[in-house]
Amino acid sequence: MIRSWSRDIVVLGGGLSGLRAASEAAVQGASVTLLEKQDQIGGSSALSAGMYWTAPDLASYRQRIPHGDQVLATRILAGYEADLAAIRASGVYVDAEATLGVMGFGRGYSFDVKSYLRVLENRLLQSHGEVHTSVRIRSVTPSGTRRFCLETESADGRHEIHTDAIILATGGFQASPEHRAAHMPEAGADLLLRANEGSEGDGLNLAVSLGAALAGDLATFYGHLVPHPVAGFTPDRFMLFSQYYSNHGILVAADGRRICEESRGDEILNQDLAEVDGMTAFLIFDEEVRSTFGVSEPFANFGRVDRFAFAVKGGARHAQAETLEELVQQLGELGVDAAQLTKTLSGDVEVSSLARRVSRSEPPSARQLEKLRKQPFYALEVQPAITFTLGGIAIDDSTAVLSTVGERIEGVYAVGADVGGFSNYGYAGGLAPAHITGTIAGSTAARFVTQARANTAQRLVVAAAKEGQTSC
């Protein structure tokens, strides 16, 4: 027997955006059920460094993400301070001073994200909301009593939830090889996953089934370069293996040529390398970089680690030499075209023939070579890794999902990494946009279902009046 029950709002996904949306809606009086497909809440947010950051203003956003959704960006940036204040008011640790220059241009605050996820869960439960883990969505269809009927499956069987509103917070589609192959044909299905395994595009699938449009470049994604090969690449080591400092070296493909301008940032190089045959390259840098940027904290309170040494211990191919000439010889033995690499180090900036898509990338500059000056010199083989996708579901600035003809799909909202277009090749943060869109969606959905209840009550009153007139 299929158990059936009714709720005002169902939130799919228990990461930061989903928990924020669910708790916000519940506090405002809606009956809310949150469903998480994994066996615990948190998603990729629980694996993050806990940096609440984004662009400091719209001008900076436009410069970094010229093809981003500026209407959505305006709404998200406008909510930054209020949502930061909400996190502070929860009582969890938040840095007193801002970290400037996050990812080269952003502004943010480090906070205890794991504790805050528990705060949001408790806030939801105290407001009579529900949380169910290890639940999968099988289908969504029209409901006879509410707007939608969600059929779910868990260890205790199948269930139906009738609801007037659905908030999609499933975290993107990066964990699905099939989706990656379809939307990221250059990178394909072999891209290394640097995130939780549950974000398989469930929100995207459901939205499309309801007629939703897609937004942003679905081939773009956020992540960081990690060593190749890499052993023990477990969630607790994702950040330890990440080579955040790659913008201070040069990135050389097997043909001995560079693939792009490295100074733009590791999260950009990560995407560029995904479009190079073989998806591997050698990151070359000097002792000054290794001993400063290579061991510095990428985020406040993260801790210092020698990333080169950690990568070598993890099995990465590498080289180390007192001179660049010796380094070239060692890399030649590892399969790099030594003759061309010598020319590259002498100033040749022609783009690698192995790079399949360079039209959106800034070509290499000779000035980056000036950073190779202090011996010894190092080379580390790296590969791209994906944390979450940047393209996804189209929404308006209220987080309402838009149809393929640009109209709102009533009662359906999307938040966090399920949303497409806020970041688009350039990256403007994960936790802050997730939290802010969650806040917006929770409030918007709560107002929607309140109005839906009022409309239903009015229809019942009218129907009763008509019935009374008829009986007379």
From TrEMBL:
Domain (FAD-dependent oxidoreductase 2 FAD-binding) ranges: 8-57, 114-425
Keywords for the protein's UniProt record, in alphabetical order: FAD, Flavoprotein, Oxidoreductase
SUPFAM superfamilies, A to Z: FAD/NAD(P)-binding domain, Succinate dehydrogenase/fumarate reductase flavoprotein, catalytic domain
InterPro entries in alphabetical order: FAD-dep_OxRdtase_2_FAD-bd, FAD-oxidoreductase_2, FAD/NAD-bd_sf, Succ_DH/fumarate_Rdtase_cat_sf
Keyword DNA repair on entry: no
Pfam families, per database record: FAD_binding_2
Cofactor: FAD
Gene3D superfamilies in the record: FAD/NAD(P)-binding domain, Succinate dehydrogenase/fumarate reductase flavoprotein, catalytic domain
PANTHER family the record matches: FAD-DEPENDENT OXIDOREDUCTASE 2 FAD BINDING DOMAIN-CONTAINING PROTEIN (PTHR43400:SF7), FUMARATE REDUCTASE (PTHR43400)
Protein name per its UniProtKB record: Succinate dehydrogenase/fumarate reductase flavoprotein subunit
Organism: Arthrobacter ginsengisoli
Lineage: Bacteria, Bacillati, Actinomycetota, Actinomycetes, Micrococcales
